[in-house]
Amino acid sequence: AMRHLPYFCRGEVVKGFGRGSKELGIPTANFSEQVVESFPPDISTGIYYGWACVGNGDVHKMVLSIGWNPFYRNTKKSVETHIIHTFKEDFYGEILSIVIVGYIRPEKNFDSLEALISAIQEDIEEAKRQLDLPEHLKLKEDNFFHLPEGKIVNNH
Ligand code: ADP
Ligand code: MG
User: Fold this and answer.
1) Where is each Riboflavin kinase domain found (predicted)?
2) pTM, whole model, 2 decimals?
């Protein structure tokens, strides 16, 4: 799972299925199909942590899911970023820059929405702890997050 990490990626935030914030209280910014298809095809599905920045805003901690969502029996692969920050407004259409730093766990099926939500809360806590480690904090300051606006560059 770690072979492709750290993985740098930038792309537009598009509309997903509206399931993140509405049902779970945990919004996930979805990348376009084009960006998803630019990922290494052999990157493991599951839950990851890393850093994220919207436009040229501040860099925040994030958790990210790659792959099929078993809970919703998705027919599509998705890459969805939950930024650990409270935003005043939605940011559809903006450029999201992320660096995927580490892997947390594979995808799982959950018996209930409550079980899914508590797993995500644990993922968020794990992400926060991991990203405070000096070797991971370093990536928050990476030049990748300070490139000129308007350029879409995948994987550097
Ligand atoms: P969709 O199915 O369209 O992705 P979601 O319910 O997952 O809908 O909500 C995602 C949207 O919420 C993002 O595209 C973004 O505009 C907004 N949003 C607000 N706060 C956050 C956040 N902390 N992390 C991710 N997205 C957020
Ligand atoms: Mg979403």
Assistant:
1) 2-132
2) 0.90
